[in-house]
């Protein structure tokens, strides 16, 4: 077990639930610092990464990495985190938690792959980066239970249910599921509706092509149980 996994396991015993992604991020950063006093930690550090869309157009995108750890040897460890919740109102250890329903799991699955892509790119562009991490904590069972690949959903290629192998080749959105009574395929190789509005998967970052450097096997682990809610986490080491 490396230093990051140890701090995550320690956090599990102290914080069973978080108010938000920022709450998770700060709590994990504090635990990492407590366990590794020589670490320097940067939150939301912006970096430039070359992105490629599905029309092969390249662009330099400036966006923050959630957390970057810097050890005494100036090695860096980039981390992307996600905290995806379904609605939950509860009192735990005398503290009230009101979690919102994030929904949009299809975009959440795409974003998880994008996080892996971005950490790979960071690692490639930084010789002093031994490894990085992508972490998601959620009480939304659709992420760890739903096999949207077998269901042939629009986001089937972005599934990361337990045991799934994330293929390094990005097959993109499953346009076989497009409702062709509402959308038609144009000579510009895009789907548009009857008002000539482009399908939402062609917009901005959802149109990125996210080919990875390797395949990744997905494993979900228990994080905590709050009343009838089960929180699980998936940690990908890059």
TrEMBL record:
Superkingdom field: Bacteria
Entry protein name: Uncharacterized protein
